[in-house]
Amino acid sequence: MTQKKVLTIAGTDVSGGAGYSADIKTFEDHDLYGFCALTTIVSMDPSTWAHRVHHVPLEILDEQIETALSLKPDTIKTGMLPNEEVISRARKAIEKSGADYFVFDPVMVCKGDDTVLNPGVVDSMQKELLPITTIVTPNLVEAGNLAGMNTPKTIDEVKEAAKKIHEYGPKYVVVKGGTGLEGDNALDIFYDGEKFYGLYADKLEKAYNHGAGCTFAAAVASNFTNGLEPLEAVKEAKAFVTSAIKHGSQMNEHVGVVRHNAYNKVDKVNVQAKEL
Ligand code: PXL
């Protein structure tokens, strides 16, 4: 196979914006071959949009991982990992795989449903996954949880959280501040263990952004797999997801989803990277 291969260990989101479908669409758009070991099935109550999360039985997850590893992924990305058992299976799979990169998207909350999935998973994410991570991609809430702090609200607090997360062992940390930090820009912060860089895009007024977090992490995974340098990989991933948000569409009264292929099919937005 001439294309490189990326395995995502993630859940489905029936709306198609987030979860493994976001990953596969994003890998495809980066000319990579994507495949999935499914952890959870998520559906939404059409009247309240409350997320209903069903776990795939562990023996079925084990079977999928066995198959997936026989396909020899170059990179592994994780999405929704609902409990300690699934996290430890993901760890074993990553260690066994010989993959070049592990991109850890520590999914704890879904947009449109603020309940933290399972606070009990933070400890095993810190101890089992962060030490073997190439790059971890938390949003502000997830960064606070992984760092053992309150949700960071300022650039200095994000830097503090990134440093604390880095101490658990990942090579790189990128915190998705998005529109949640001060200033006129949608700002994400990248930390390579020595220096901090701000990734700046315009704040978008009409943000159809369901799936943005998964899409960003999948684009980071794609860019590492395609050999980009780490800072370039996160900068390009932010441009990819910002285009996807800009050209997203409203699906029903509850949800608007990103357009995963907008960067290559519609327009390439501009992102600036500056040392902070
Ligand atoms: O956006 C986080 C997320 C990840 N994975 C799955 C989801 C969601 C949010 O809905 O359903 C499967």
Task: Give an overview in words.
This protein has 276 residues and is α/β, with parallel strands linked by helices. It has one domain (5-275): UDP-N-acetylmuramoyl-L-alanine:D-glutamate ligase. Helix content is 37%, strand content 22%. It contains 9 helices and 12 strands. It has helices at 19-29, 58-70, 84-97, 121-129, 140-147, 155-166, 212-225, 230-246, 262-265; strands at residues 5-13, 33-44, 51-55, 75-78, 101-104, 135-136, 172-175, 185-191, 196-202, 249-250, 256-257, 272-275. Strands 3-2-1-4-5-6-7-8-9-12 form a 10-stranded mixed beta sheet, sandwiched between helices. α2 runs parallel beside α3 (84-97), α3 runs parallel beside α4 and α5 packs across α6 (155-166). It starts with a strand and ends with a strand. 51% of the residues are buried. The mean pLDDT is 94. Bound molecules: 3-hydroxy-5-(hydroxymethyl)-2-methylisonicotinaldehyde. The site of 3-hydroxy-5-(hydroxymethyl)-2-methylisonicotinaldehyde (PXL) has 16 residues, from β1, β2 and α7. It catalyses: pyridoxal + ATP = pyridoxal 5'-phosphate + ADP + H(+). It holds the Pfam family Phos_pyr_kin. It comes from Nosocomiicoccus ampullae. It is an enzyme of class 2 (transferase). This is pyridoxal kinase.
